[in-house]
Specification:
Elements: E1 5-8, H1 14-21, E2 25-28, H2 37-43, E3 49-51, H3 60-64, E4 71-73, H4 84-89, E5 93-95, H5 102-117, H6 120-128, E6 149-153, H7 157-168, E7 172-176, H8 184-187, E8 189-191, H9 194-200, E9 203-206, H10 220-225, E10 231-234, H11 243-251, E11 257-260, H12 271-274, E12 279-281, H13 290-308, H14 319-323
Helix pairs in contact: 1-13, 5-7
Bound molecules: NADP nicotinamide-adenine-dinucleotide phosphate (NAP) and glyoxylic acid (GLV).
Glyoxylic acid is lined by residues 54, 76-78, 101, 286-287.
C-alpha cells in the first residue's frame, strides 16, 4: 500500500500518527484551527484518506476536489459537519469514534449541571472581584442537584453515562428517545414523552445527535413547558436549541439557567447569553480530556487504516457506501 496519502486536519498525536504511518504517508495541518474549504480542498487533492476533527467542516466542494478519497475518518462521535450524502454518492466511507469519549462527555455534562445550579462560576468571579466581605446567610444561594429530577433527551451512550452518575446523587431519572430503551430499567430511568419530560425535569440534558429531526428540538414552545426553576444543559450540538429563544427565556426568567458546551454558530455566542449570570458557557470541550483526545485520535486512525486496507471499518456510519463497492 505504499504511496497512500493521508491528510489530518490537526497536528495529530504521535501515537495515532504512527498507526497511520504503517500504511502510508501522513500530512497534518500545521495548526488546530479549521482550514478554509479552499485550503482543505487543495490539501486533499491527492489524498486517499482524510481525518478531520468533529469541528472541521467537510463540504461537497472538498469531496469533489479529492478524486482518490476512499475514507473520511472523523475524530468525533458527531459527524454532522461532513457531507455524508456527497461522500456516500462517491462510495467514500465515513467513520466516527463512538464510545471512547462517552464518560468524559458525561463528566462535562455533570460539571455544567453542578456549576450552574450551585453558581460555581459566579461565585469564583465574586471572590476574584474582591467582593467577598464575609460569610452571609443568603450569599449565592443555588439549587440542589441531589434528589432532583433529571430529564435526559437521547438515552444513548452519553445519556446513559449521565444517568449512571445520577444514582449517586439520589436523583429520579426520566428520559426521552424515539424508542424506549431496553437498558433504561437497569438505570432506573423511566420513559416520558418529550412534553412530559420538559414539564417534569429539574435538569433537562440534551444528548441527541444533530439530525434534520433534532435541529431546533428545543425552541420557544419547549422552553415554555419547562419549570421556572429548571435548568437546560446542552452537551450535544448547538443547533438542537434555538439560541435566541433560549436567551429570551433566560432573560424573562422563564427557566432558571443553562449550562452550554455547544452553540448554534460556533465560536460565535448569542450576545445575550454572555450577559447572563445564570448561564455557564464552555467552548465545546465535552470530550477534551488528555486521555480521551488520544483515544479519539487513535480510534480515527484505526478506522482509517482498516478502510484503506479494504476492510469494513468498525465505526462505519454510511453502510450504503460499503454496499455500493
Ligand atoms: P448515541 O449513543 O447515538 O445516542 C444518541 C441518542 O439520541 C440515542 O439514544 C437515540 O435514540 C437518541 N435520538 C436520536 N434521535 C432522536 C430524536 N429525534 N429524538 C429523541 N432522541 C433521539 O450518541 P452518543 O455517543 O451518546 O452522542 C450523542 C451526541 O453527543 C453526538 O452525536 C454528538 O453530537 C454529541 N457529543 C458532543 C460532545 C461535546 O464535546 N460536547 C462530545 C461527544 C458527543 P433513538 O434512536 O432510540 O431515538
Ligand atoms: C464532539 O463533539 C463529538 O461529537 O465527539
Amino acid at each position: 500500500m505504499a504511496g497512500l496519502r493521508i491528510f489530518v486536519t490537526w497536528p495529530m498525536e504521535r501515537e495515532a500518527r504512527a498507526i497511520l504511518e504503517r500504511v502510508g504517508s501522513v500530512e497534518t495541518s500545521p495548526s488546530e484551527g479549521e482550514l478554509p474549504a479552499e485550503a482543505l480542498a487543495r490539501a486533499v487533492e491527492r489524498a486517499d484518506a482524510l481525518i478531520p476533527t468533529g469541528a472541521h467542516r467537510v463540504p461537497p466542494s472538498v469531496i469533489a476536489a479529492a478524486p482518490g478519497l476512499r475514507v473520511i475518518a472523523v475524530a468525533a462521535v458527531g459527524y454532522n459537519l461532513v457531507d455524508v450524502a456527497a461522500a456516500t454518492a462517491r462510495g467514500i466511507l465515513v467513520t466516527n469514534t463512538p464510545g471512547v469519549l462517552t464518560e468524559t462527555t458525561a463528566d462535562l455534562a455533570w460539571a455544567l449541571m453542578l456549576a450552574v445550579a450551585r453558581r460555581v462560576v459566579e461565585a469564583d468571579r465574586f471572590v476574584r472581584a474582591g467582593r467577598w466581605t464575609g460569610v452571609t446567610w443568603s450569599l449565592l444561594l443555588g439549587d440542589d442537584v441531589q434528589r432532583s429530577t433529571l430529564g435526559i433527551v437521547g438515552l444513548g451512550r452519553i445519556g446513559k453515562a449521565v444517568a449512571r452518575r445520577a444514582t449517586g446523587f439520589g436523583m429520579r431519572v426520566v428520559y426521552h428517545s424515539r424508542h424506549p430503551d431496553p437498558d433504561a430499567e437497569g438505570l432506573g430511568a423511566v420513559f416520558r414523552s418529550k412534553t412530559d419530560l420538559l414539564q417534569e425535569a429539574d435538569f433537562v440534558i440534551l444528548t441527541v445527535p444533530l439530525t434534520p429531526e433534532t435541529r431546533g428540538l428545543i425552541g420557544k414552545t419547549e422552553l415554555a413547558l419547562m419549570k421556572p426553576s429548571a435548568y437546560l444543559i446542552n452537551v450535544a450540538r448547538g443547533p438542537i436549541v434555538d439560541e435566541a429563544a433560549l436567551a429570551a427565556a433566560l432573560r424573562a426568567r422563564q427557566i432558571a439557567g443553562a449550562g452550554l458546551d455547544v452553540f448554534e454558530d460556533e465560536p460565535r455566542i448569542h450576545p445575550d447569553l454572555l450577559a447572563l449570570d445564570q448561564v455557564v458557557l464552555t467552548p465545546h470541550i465535552g470530550s477534551a480530556s488528555r486521555a480521551t483526545r488520544l483515544a479519539m485520535a487513535t480510534r480515527a486512525a484505526e478506522n482509517c487504516v482498516v478502510a484503506l486496507e479494504g476492510r469494513r471499518p468498525p465505526d462505519l456510519v454510511n453502510p450504503d457506501a460499503w454496499r455500493g463497492r
